[in-house]
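[recover] target loaded
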């Protein structure tokens, strides 16, 4: 346990052993008497307890204080990143109806490399080559999936294929990505202070990034109006950019980008917006958490031009579940469905598929 985490252990003594246990990825506190952890992708209820609701509430307030924030009646929600990189979100009563609720997403010290993902069976060798080709050919890629399905991890893996020598601007709400190349310019947004001042959004940082001569732009996650700024950046160069979005299927990913772009408040006809989405995004890499807790790249799809104003994708690979054992264990296989339209382009560039 590093020094920076020691105060956490102090405040959250009842769950200290989970903070220290590297096999635990999340700690979920639902009021003082109920604590869950996630381990190897599975939720488990624990017997950890806080003495009382006021004790738990005080712990949450202390965490807030230690990072210069306030958690009280007027500020009943806390979003914080701890010095060791772990993310904390807390909500207190009366918003939460079961007492103070805290979720801690622990920072992973060892990066989940694409080698490890492959070893875990999250993707196979041909998908790895496909992903590498997408990056080397400067395709714009969005990683989609549900909450905690492994989107950020896959984005991190994708980014590892960016060749040295390209200038990459990285924009995140809270630093999670770990790009290893030399020429990286990482930015992090800033929340408003307690007087509501000083907020810097992803949109602001895209604006700056575009003036800083990026070869590629990597955005941690698209959640709102910044989708439109990203689309415009992609349609005016900066090919090879990548991001993630919460969506249920590759097609849904395109619709979600559209919905987010509409949140920008900038008036743009729907047909024009759809055309922008379809031309800006080249491929969607879709992730899922299966019923046994394992994460997989369940689909890689190319984005096709609009047809009658509707989005279309062409699936290149997909996960097929063959059986689910009584203990929940999922077995299945990856299937190659279509040859990528850029197969020839890859061949010419000497990139094996
Ligand atoms: N392929 C994988 N194999 C095993 N564990 C994984 C895999 N991908 C991700 N994980 C683990 O799953 C958890 C969630 O991963 P990640 O943060 O990448 O998901 P996400 O979809 O970006 O989540 P969020 O919706 O919160 O942004 C992390 O603890 C991560 O280490
Ligand atoms: Mg994420």
């Amino acid at each position: 346990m590093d020094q920076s985490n020691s105060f956490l252990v102090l405040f959250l003594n009842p769950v200290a052993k989970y903070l220290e246990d590297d096999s635990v990825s999340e700690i979920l506190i639902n009021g003082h008497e109920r604590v869950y952890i996630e381990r190897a992708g599975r939720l488990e209820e624990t017997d950890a307890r806080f003495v009382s609701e006021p004790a738990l509430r005080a712990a949450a307030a202390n965490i807030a204080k230690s990072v210069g924030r306030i958690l009280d009646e007027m500020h009943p929600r806390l979003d914080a990143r701890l010095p060791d990189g772990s993310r904390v979100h807390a909500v207190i009563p009366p918003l939460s109806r079961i007492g103070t609720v805290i979720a801690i997403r622990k920072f992973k010290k060892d990066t989940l490399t694409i080698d490890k993902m492959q070893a875990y069976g999250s993707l196979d060798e041909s998908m790895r080559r496909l992903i590498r080709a997408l990056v080397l050919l400067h395709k714009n890629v969005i990683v989609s999936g549900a909450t905690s399905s492994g989107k950020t991890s896959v984005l991190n893996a994708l980014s590892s294929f960016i060749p040295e020598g390209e200038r990459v601007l990285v924009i995140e709400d809270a630093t999670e990505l770990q790009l290893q190349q030399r020429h990286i310019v990482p930015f992090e947004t800033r929340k408003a202070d307690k007087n509501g001042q000083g907020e810097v959004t992803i949109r602001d940082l895209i604006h700056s990034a575009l003036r800083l001569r990026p070869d590629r732009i990597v955005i941690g996650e698209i959640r709102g109006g910044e989708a439109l700024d990203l689309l415009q950046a992609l349609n005016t160069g900066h090919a090879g950019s990548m991001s993630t979005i919460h969506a249920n299927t590759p097609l849904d990913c395109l619709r979600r980008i559209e919905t987010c772009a509409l949140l920008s408040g900038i008036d743009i006809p729907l047909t024009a917006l759809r055309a922008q989405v379809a031309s800006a995004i080249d491929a969607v890499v879709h992730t899922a958490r299966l019923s046994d807790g394992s994460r997989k790249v369940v689909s890689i799809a190319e984005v096709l031009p609009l047809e009658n104003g509707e989005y279309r994708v062409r699936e290149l690979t997909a996960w097929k579940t063959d059986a689910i054992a009584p203990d929940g264990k999922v077995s299945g296989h990856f299937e190659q469905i279509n040859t990528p339209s850029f197969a020839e382009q890859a061949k010419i560039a000497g990139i094996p598929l």
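[recover] notes: The first helix runs from residue 6 to 11.
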